[in-house]
## 1
Amino acid sequence: MAGWVQGNPNLARGEAKVILNEVNSANPSRLKGYVEVAGKKADVVIANPSGIQCDGCGVINAGRTTLTTGKAEVENGELKGYRVQGGKVSVGQKGMDTSKADYTDIIADKAEIKGGVWGNKVKVTTGKNKVDRTNDSVVYVGDKNTNETDRTLESTNDQAQVYSVDVGQLGGMYAEKIHLVDNG
């Protein structure tokens, strides 16, 4: 909690409805605290194609919270959706608290949940997909660089299964409604 936050003079015509935090880095984003929307509720999007690591992160005063490894698709200043080609969103043992947000979306090629995820309506969408902003429309786009018909890895003795959603021993999701979509 930051206490009093000075208003943004660039928002004189009204508050933001969507706050897009687009990260362009070769490294994953590391979230280890809370993001708070000062003023009216707004959707909070954190997008980093290189991945997102949340360990004790959360969001306060958001209508929708989205962590995605997708590239944000913006048309005429409006966020339309995300195109996911890779990357992993991982939730560490300290968990993720979005219980004060109406909706929580994790949209990535892979998701790893090792701690609790607390929210109202939680939706996890994995795979190489094109996803609309509200995570209602998901279209599989595949990977142009690999053979998508082979979904296993060769190992010396056996085949190891490829996963898209991995919920570890201490991980879990706690919500009024949980929806999983896996195209990975």
Note: DSSP finds no helices and 20 strands in the chain.
## 2
Amino acid sequence: MIRKQARQRRDYLYRRAQLLRDAEVSEKRAKLRASLASGKPLDPSIANDKSLRKDYQYDESAPDMSTNEQLDLDDEYAQLSGIVDPRVLVSTSRDPSARLSAFAKEIRLLLPTSIRMNRGNLILPDLVKSAQSAGLSDIVLLHEHRGTPTALTLSHFPHGPTMSFSLHNVVLRHDIPGSVRGTVSESYPHLIFDGFTSPLGKRIVKILKHIFPPREAITSKNKMGNRVVTFKNIEDSIEVRHHVFVRTGYDSVELAEVGPRMTMRPFEIRGGTLENKDGDVEWHLSQYTRTAKKKNYL
């Protein structure tokens, strides 16, 4: 089983590397074609690259797709997006406090198609192996420090990516003043992503939205649903809010916060699954960022 997973991982990485190489060449050739048509000067790295002109006359039928567009044809979520509802496992670090266990339950309610598992004494490789054997698509692992949730790790199966967030200002449902009490609605929520404009921000949006099941097209008011989950980027801090809404008029609604409420700050995106510490680092928050000039990554 381990050899099979390693072989599948190598095949995926090889196919991904080939696709990335072909996509970069295709993007450069598209810029070359546009420059020849408009007469504008090219970047010297493209203009002096003789290999781009090889078989150029036979490349006219190739679509002008950017690198990201070609990579989307074979990304990690191609087999899941819009076809199968994600099945997410929510768990915690070992020996969790009562507050972390309550937070894990609320994350389970936030994700409609997720399940929660008490970790017990399971080590990380065994936890990942049991999740994969059960046919789960993702795992959310919560961490704490002295009873306060401090980190969230999200990993996609079978080949990654794995994304790590630090958690701040975590407020549980019952600590939110005026929050909705009683049973939490588990209808498929509407998702709002605001402020994610950079390529890194769009990458994070893709990772986050695929742990929620897709909603069907709205054909009537009865199928509109009543939940909305908001991810708002404010200076690289992602504010997460969970509301239910009720229509009070033809074009007006009333919102009521359900919770939990938290702030997520990404600090690493890595290839591979949760237990694979040797995966390629796709992005990480650089050191000494706080002492340098402020830069917004998302």
Note: The chain has a mean pLDDT of 81.
## 3
Amino acid sequence: MPLPSPYPNLLDGPSVASTIPSSELHRVFRDAGERERISGVPVTKLHVGEPYFTPPPEVAQALAEAVTAGRTDYTAVEGLLELRERLVEKLADQNGVDTDVSRLFVTPGSCQGLAALMQAVAEPDAEILLPELHWPIHLQQVLLAGLRPVFYPLGRDYRTDPESVLAASTANTRVLLINSPANPTGAVLDTATLSTLIDMARARGWQVISDEAYEHFVFDDEHVSTASLEWDVPVSERIVHSSYSFSKSLAMTGYRLGYVSTANDRTAHAFRIVQEANLIAMSTPVQYAGLEALRLGHVVRENRAMVLSNRDAVLPAVRDAGLLPELPAGGWYAVLDVAPTGLTAEEFATGLLETRNVAVVPGTGFALMPRLDARGRVITVEPAPWSRHLIRIAMCVAPSVLRSGVRELLEFARERPGTAR
């Protein structure tokens, strides 16, 4: 007879992580790769945010020189001091954000930085406010941190309406997530909206996490960093924690390099503990590559111009076909509504891949709304009903790929009744 376990809770049901839904992005990524493997025919990949432009050669050279010179030892858990000093200067000069090296952390990609921020600010039974249409990795990070997601509806053009945010909040709300420019919608929040959201959060004792991975890809206006609106607020009273990325601005996706600026010393301490446990230290050669990348501002501007050119050259045809209400104001993606075709998002994406060899992502994967039990495990998960006809396409791919993929997409749509011809 087995002995009774001294840790009975370990045997009581599945782990929290095992109940969290997998990202739809990764499923489509696998499906597209499998189709290529079996058929031998290349898939036109509009499903993934992998840029066609590449990191400048100076970045690779800096990485190689760091390795060759033996700069491969540990750095502090916060990151290379010289890089952090440069990032503090960058945030002040370009973003209007006041921070200090003691509150600035280099991370292996902004994704890991966001996950660590969630853990650093999480409280037992605390709720976090997310838009109904959100990046699925945000939801996974929230659940793994033990936060309970509460969703607010988006307004016209997928913009955040502060009144809707307030209406969704409860007495247990502790965190508000802001993502501008947004993935997947490309929506950009202006200064007035951000100010209202920060004032609302401060009055209610909330923390704010600002995901600004696409900061350099605002097309019709200027990017506003959320934390810039706290410049005159004493550090101890600041509430906006910000995450940034090298992956988008400088196409350094595989380098895995980002950074986080925490609002105050209390959160910096908590973030440091999380990184000590999860990370120990960043890759040292990658940090030297990042240091070189910061000297290449002209490349950032060129990369922005290439994505904007893609948007303006190709997406008006999608809008004219009645599948896109407005051109995205920022970011790398566009959310299409394929309801006129009579197909659901899954049917459209599957049919497009099988008949036209074009991969897109169903929008339902960006609108998952889980129900949790008392321990934070997911009991059920369903997409928001209005997302059932949405798909996301990437506009950061090569111009020829985007033109070809969109041409096939529109021809596929026109074969269905109700689509503009």
Note: The mean pLDDT is 94.
